[in-house]
Amino acid sequence: MARFVGFLRGINVGGRNKLSMKRLIQIFHDCGAQAVATYIQSGNVRFSASNQAESVLVARRVERQLAEEDHVESLVVLRTPRAIQGLIETHPFVADEEDERFVSVGFFSKTPSADAVARLDKDRSPPDRFVVRRADLFLHTPQGMGRSKLTVGYFDVQLGVVTTVRNLKTLRAIVALEG
Fold it and tell me: I need a labelling partner for 88 at 20 to 30 A (CA). Which of 23, 81, 104, 140 fits?
């Protein structure tokens, strides 16, 4: 069995897409996942599947079941715990010794085109900064995410992807989860 993390976009945010983690665990089990565990109430799920292809099938089944039975529209973006650990260790703001409370990682639903990435406005929200690496986004928002113009909506529209973001503390906890 291989371990995977599913990041669900928009679960229990702003009073929308309300879903208990007990229900989310049950849905993942129903859809073929094993050893399922969640972290906090915002759609972070660590689970086991036989391989990468099976994890993708589980994710698509979860999306369908959420929509059909719970009336929740949410995309499941997958990564491995090992990949997440690598992102934590190599985020581009490490060398700056930035306060990690203001560093987050975004996960794109697919790798955006190089042309779309090149068109992103680096000066959209000073003093905020971002770096795109393949299907991942690194954000440094020293005044907080709530004040930044570097929103998931901005990246979604500009890059033609779906984006979900987690801070480093959350990512470390997810990597450490046992299920």
Answer: 23
